[in-house]
């Protein structure tokens, strides 16, 4: 049967067909939909959201050691979080086939950095597969588990934004069940005390050598001979760009298994063509290897080392031509993303934006957008969980230097569970003085609404215990009187809590609890927040003085022109932040 | 081998470009074409510029539409038409929803929304502009403007009349919105 699937849907399907029985992930663009697509195979594959990528990887490793085919999935920066277990699991090898899906984001469509994790496969010594479209995502993923078992090595399944989020036609196959052996302890294999680990390190080289031999003659690496004046070596979606530009005017070595690299195959291919071009995104991963083999080639001399590749770039780089296009001298205005109308983060950031002399450390999520004008209320974003630990370090450093700048750290509920908890422990244990604000919007928002340990539901739709955030903070050692929960849409309540907590010289926690406006509300949400989406705001144009105070909340439901401000009724959700900041009582809340 | 056709759907996060392209690609696949579609998720969905790229033909390699290669660009918002002009093939058609969404810098008074975009573009390329939101509102729900635009796109592409678009709408939208969306599709097609 043929269906249209995104690369992520196809990867999920491949895991199902390949006999996987266990899957775990933390959501992250562009990888999120892989696990979101697993519950449909729930009769055969158990799947879960983990609090972070390290935990997801370790859970999947546990399943593999127990003898079950398993996988974990993450975005590229999640790989950094999961690096600790995977670098050692490479030594031990697997029992059930194990795949780590890592989705890079060339061009940083939705990420804080751009890192090429093909280097990670090389550095951790993991087998690496790189599919080029949805069909290959399905086929390679299906075969990855047996490949992992064959060489006793974990597989890094390397995908990119463009393979993840492009759709193509996929021919489906059947599931292949893998037998689960009875558990037997293998202490010398899995206890990496130095005496064992040294042996494993040596045998890993033997396993890599066997895989290298295999890579020279395997279905993942393919030669397409056409005109031999140009030979293109490429992998992943870059193959599609090269194929589109050179058509049959070049021959191709399309690599799908890229660690270990097929040296003999590369040498043989290069001997049959006049010139070798390397077409690859981000780092010169293939190019450096080809040059190390003593082969002249052209790659990063003409293709940029960063940003997403496309056909326009490949054409210009190698053929020196650009397409004819229509041109206009009329300028467009940038359209940056913004916090949604009714976003519960707006009220908090509005309150913070009015305070002078504070440093605001931020984190990864929708609330990163609190940085944008007119709020300008997030000053840093480095990585998941960093807001509280950075805030702690800054609060100690500022105090030590005799400065009276107060430090506020903002972090979402899911990000707090990811790695923020450890940071709060640091702040409490070491007597910091930053105010940690946990923006609990009852869901993992930015990645498109995934359940997490605080929401009461699992990936597979089962009810689950909820983390009690105030109780957790208290158990870490934050004093009871230093933990306050507010409705962030209520500016007076939020400001009062900020006044109280910012006056303290010890770790404090403010929890803003209100659901994401885009969330599909649970019955519990409807019971706890009965006014959700029940009202809207309207501006009384007779009372309005067009002072634009409401517009300074940055709400996209307020349409401002020279003449007036009106509320777009299709997008207003009745958060009333604009009504509360209006100095002329010109905004009314009405039933929707 | 038939030439690969390229379509770009551009707009603002939340306007329904993804549903329109889902119906489009599903119909193209059933008609026997190789199809690739590309979209970007994540942060840009929060009110930023978004694009969905669709390519079809006997064999499609790259999932993205390059500069100067789109046979039709469907702009769900007028300034987005201007932003993507350089992707239109010489001789291609720009289908434009006569509809504005003010970006934040304009709302804050830090920039001005360019006036007269549609007239300006008419002087440059083939433009088919209309008020899809008004048509959808008359049919009962302004949110169906994405399917009005899909109907206009199918007409502009030509050669896609044998596809059962009503069946694709039935397969891809919630039952209670099927009638509305069928009407919206035909309203856009018949313009």
Q: Layout of SSEs?
A:
The complex is a heterodimer of chains A (592) and B (191).
Chain A: E1 2-6, H1 7-17, E2 22-25, H2 32-36, E3 46-49, H3 53-65, E4 70-75, H4 76-81, H5 83-92, E5 98-104, H6 118-124, E6 127-129, H7 134-151, E7 155-160, H8 161-165, E8 166-171, H9 187-190, H10 194-215, E9 222-224, E10 230-235, H11 238-246, E11 251-255, E12 257-259, H12 263-271, E13 275-279, H13 285-292, H14 311-319, H15 345-353, E14 358-361, H16 386-400, E15 406-412, H17 413-429, E16 435-440, H18 469-476, E17 483-486, H19 491-502, E18 508-513, H20 523-528, E19 535-539, E20 558-560, E21 565-567, H21 577-581, E22 587-591
Parallel strand pairs in A: 2-3, 2-4, 4-5, 5-7, 6-7, 10-11, 10-13, 14-15, 15-16, 16-18, 17-18
Antiparallel strand pairs in A: 1-8, 6-12, 9-11, 19-22, 20-21
Chain B: E1 5-12, H1 17-30, E2 34-39, E3 49-57, E4 70-75, H2 78-83, E5 88-97, H3 104-107, H4 117-122, E6 126-130, H5 132-139, H6 145-157, H7 165-172, H8 178-189
Parallel strand pairs in B: 1-4, 4-5, 5-6
Antiparallel strand pairs in B: 1-3, 2-3
Helix pairs in contact in B: 1-6, 1-7, 5-6, 5-8, 6-8, 7-8
Q: Give me the count of strands of chain A.
A: 22
Q: Which sequence of strands runs across the widest sheet of chain B?
A: 2-3-1-4-5-6
Number of discrete helical segments of chain B:
8
Question: What is the name of the CATH superfamily of chain B?
Answer: Pyruvate-ferredoxin oxidoreductase, PFOR, domain III
CATH architecture title of chain B: 3-Layer(aba) Sandwich
Largest interface: chains, residues each: A-B, 62 and 59 residues
Oligomeric state as shown = heterodimer
State the end-to-end CA separation of chain A: 46 Å
Strand arrangement within the widest β-sheet of chain A reads 3-2-4-5-7-6-12
Cα distance spanning the termini of chain B: 32 Å
Describe the biggest sheet of chain B? 6 strands, mixed
